[in-house]
Amino acid sequence: xxxxxxxxxxxxxxxxxxxxxxxxxxxxxxxxxxxxxxxxxxxxxxxxxxxxxxxxxxxxxxxxxxxxxxxxxxxxxxxxxxxxxxxxxxxxxxxxxxxxxxxxxxxxxxxxxxxxxxxxxxxxxxxxxxxxxxxxxxxxxxxxxxxxxxxxxxxxxxxxxxxxxxxxxxxxxxxxxxxx
Length: 180
Description:
single chain, mainly alpha, about 65% helix, elongated
């Protein structure tokens, strides 16, 4: 049980928040637990969930890559909640557990990743473990693979999701789904 008691589904009456919870359930990330905890502060819950969906499921960077990065970041953050969830959209697009796992190990040595994907996975890891390595030369390398808008999308995604996962870890949350 998480450290902050989630609201029961029937206690949530805000139609927008209910729709965002349904959207998360349909995507698989998050399940209903995290939004029901956040629902104690409905305005913040709605803002955070809207940002989660924009950063994760929308944009001009491949959703499968974002899903690999999301899990990689959850593992770096030590967050079992988000590390245990999987995007149904990414799975339907062909993302499997082996590829997700490879993204959290040594993707630079893995032939299943393109040079662009390897750079993005390194970007996520370095931003949090070695931010001093993310310098002008690093971004110049990224520009060989991505537009500046895509690099900003990735950067915002990485910053948002790592922070959210660190928060989820402090709540003691665990996925509701038993399959992950």
